[in-house]
Amino acid sequence: MKLNKLMIAAVAAIILAVGFFCAHTLVRQRILENAPVQKTEPRQSVRPQAEGGQAAETEDTRDDEPATVAEMPGKSRIKITLPPPAFRGTPPEIKGVFNLEPPRGGRPREPIFVPVGCDMLLSLGCKVTSSDPDPVFGELSFITDGEKEHDPATYVELAPGTQWVQVDLGEAREIHAACVWHYHGEARVYRDVICQISNDPDFIDGVVTVFSNDHDNSSKLGAGKDKEYIETHEGRPFAVDAVTGRYVRFYSRGNTSNELNHYIEIEVYGKGG
Ligand SMILES: [Ca+2]
Ligand SMILES: [Ca+2]
Asked: In sequence order, which residues have a C-beta less than 8 Å from that of residue 76 and are 6 or more positions away?
């Protein structure tokens, strides 16, 4: 008798469990059927084009950017196409850097707004020269070829010490922003990152410094007030206050991993026309 009661109880428990499972599956299916479909835009890459500085068709496809970026009435936003990150997570502590920008907690950099029509990519495909005309590795043309992904085949390696690379925009242009990617295969800091603009290819006359984090003037170009930063796939974008010039020169003096200088890409943005 006791055995029969036990069997009845077991059968009842099985029936209840099967019933609950079927009901749960049906409800879940209904929820999935009614859920909104998330639209995924295809990634779009920037390819070299542009003789004469035509605007690149850049879609901002950064993975970590919020779905909507606030626009500013009467302004254009500089749209920088980012490569995928080569590393994620909190960068390790980098010793010997005392002028580092504060951590952003994974947030993307603030957008750069410029006057309407001054957001044109001017530098794509432009000629590049350097203080090291015979790079240790890579070609100077890599620096304006539109390829920004971290890959051993995409960066240029220059000699140790303070070195520069110089982008020739072909004619004097009104410059409103720039962005530089040195090397983002690991978290490192490049020293004495300086950007200057001039109409003089030798940078003797009419030189305007538009970025410098050489706070201790170790590269002897004048101390700068910008912060040092850890290299990531975001590069280092910065605004330029409508400086007109044909040549844009970037300096660096090695990095926290080795004494060499590297560049993956430089972009210069400014007034169209
Ligand atoms: Ca490149
Ligand atoms: Ca320095």
From this structure: 113, 114, 115, 116, 117, 118, 119
Say how many Å lie between the CA of residue 192 and the centre of ligand 2.
Answer: 5
Its pTM surpasses 0.90: no
Separation of 142 CA from ligand 1 center, angstroms? 4
| Distance in Å, CA 250 to ligand 1 centroid | 15
Q: Which ligand is nearest to the CA of 97?
A: 2
Taking the chain, what is the end-to-end CA distance rounded to the nearest angstrom? 97
Nearest C-alpha neighbor of 213 from the set 192, 195, 189 = 192
Distance CA 227, CA 96 (A): 14
Higher pLDDT, 87 or 202: 202
The beta strands (E) that lie in the chain are given as 75-77, 113-115, 120-121, 127-130, 156-158, 163-181, 194-198, 208-212, 236-252, 261-263, 265-270
Q: How confident is the model at residue 13, as a pLDDT?
A: 53
- Residue 1 CA, ligand 2 centroid: distance in Å: 91
pLDDT in tens, 223-244: 999 999 999 999 999 999 999 9
Q: Ligand 1 center to residue 144 CA distance, Å?
A: 6
Ligand nearest the Cα of residue 140 is 1
Percent of residues, the chain, with pLDDT higher than 70: 74
Q: What is the pLDDT of residue 43?
A: 30
**Cα of 155 to ligand 2 centre, how many Å?**
23
